[in-house]
Each structure stands twice: as structure tokens, then as C-alpha cells.
Amino acid sequence: MTAMPETPACELDIPYEGLAPTANADFNRDGFIHLSGVLGPETIARYEPTITSEVIRLNTQHLPLAERDTYGRAFLQVTNLWRENARVKRLVFSRRLAGIAAALLGVHAVRLYHDQALYKEPSGGITPWHADQYYWPLSSDRCVTIWLPLQETPLDMGPLAFARGSHNYSCGRDLPISDESEARLRQAVAEQDFEDVVEPFALGDASFHRGWTFHHAGPNRGTAPRRVMTVIYMDADIRVAEPANDRQAGDRDWMPGAEVGRIPRTPLNPVL
């Protein structure tokens, strides 16, 4: 792991004061929330170059865009950067970000599932409609992902978009991210009259969404990569569930050694 010096006190340790009194209720109703000023420009400027350099160093996708499948064209994906770089760990372990997640979920604390950088290259394709929790062998839906852009993200860069209220809709939960999930969930969103909420992100904005919330993103029509850091949090008291599909069986690797029915108290899943 690359060591990077840090000052002892910074924005990452200071509670976020932008949550409205209705934030938890709004989040439970909509399945997502878009927050302004989660981090300041100076904080993002400190961490973005390190995250970007780690994505370049660790990326294993080397095919030209034209030769990739839909998933491969959606983004470059690098996971658990916190294990590779101490500065990235500082961001991923932020008490400020974890505190927002716990408040939105209505739990006393959250535990880390894993992080992942998602970089949509210029001319990168759509991110198909999907729900993240299809992949997670966890005992409840008290899980949330922060989507933190590392630059201003206008509509032409493909910001993350959400189907409002779709986390309460059980159909379509058997679909991995794919061309099929794009077609079937797009149809379900239209038939169920879920609002497709597509908004630009200012620098410092972040969204939080529940594991079963249907979401997607457009292509990156800009000339620069859409650089995004994500962290998946789970209720600190959640338990490992029996995998419901092969993808969930593979995802147990994010909680090494944790047994079904037990809280995943592993070195990779600290309480934040």
C-alpha cells in the first residue's frame, strides 16, 4: 500500500450538516437522494488525482471500446482501492460519508462492503438499468451506495439516474446488469410509471441509493472521462445470507471467511 501523509483534521471527519429533517423519510420513499456540497472542491481536488492514478495503474480492461460488450463499454471498474493506497483509504473510511449513510438507513452504524471506482471513458456507452442488490448475499435491504463524482457531471457525461420508488417493486430483481436488464427494466419503469430522475451533478454533489433501487446512466458524450468513486455501506448488524445466484456466491469474497447467518466481522468489512 502506498503511504500518503494526511493532516489529522479535515472535512472527511466533520459531520455533514446538509441533511434535511425529512431526509430519512424522503430516502425511504424514493429509494435515493441527491445531496449538494457533500464534499468541498478542495477535498475532491486532493483525492481525485490519486484515485485516477490508481484506476490507471490497476485497470485490467485494455480492449478498444468497439470490441467490448455492453458492460465493458459502460465503465472501467476497479474495486477496493482502499487496500492499495492509504489516501484512498482515508476517503473510503470517511466518518462524514458513513454518517450520512447511517442516517439515511436509520441504523446506528454502517459497515464497509467494498468500494469501487467507475470511470466512464469519452464515448463510453450506457450503464444499463439494474439493481445492485442482485449481487449482494445479504440478509436485509439496509444497504446503500454513495455515487461521488470527482468532477462536475453535466447531462452529456452520463450522470447516474434513478427510478423513483422502484426499490419497492419486486419484479426484475433476478437480472444482472446486461442488455436484458436494460430492456426489461426500462419497460417496467415505463409500465409502473416510475419517474426517471436524471439530473446533473455539481462538483461536490453526491447521491445515495438503496440496493434495490433501479438505476442507469447515459453514455459519456463529453471529451473527458466521467470519474466517479463509489462506496457500498451495509447496516453494521446485517448478516450474510445464503447466495440466491452465482453472482452472489462470488460476491461472498468481499466478506472473506464470514459464514451464512453471521455478521461479517472481517478485516475487509470494518464498522465506519
UniProtKB/TrEMBL annotation:
Residues 244-272 are annotated as: Disordered. InterPro entries: Phytyl_CoA_dOase-like (IPR008775). The lineage of its organism: Bacteria, Bacillati, Actinomycetota, Actinomycetes, Streptosporangiales. Residues 244-254 have a biased composition (Basic and acidic residues). It comes from Actinoallomurus bryophytorum. One of its GO terms (molecular function) is 2-oxoglutarate-dependent dioxygenase activity. Keywords: Dioxygenase, Oxidoreductase. This is Ectoine hydroxylase-related dioxygenase (Phytanoyl-CoA dioxygenase family).
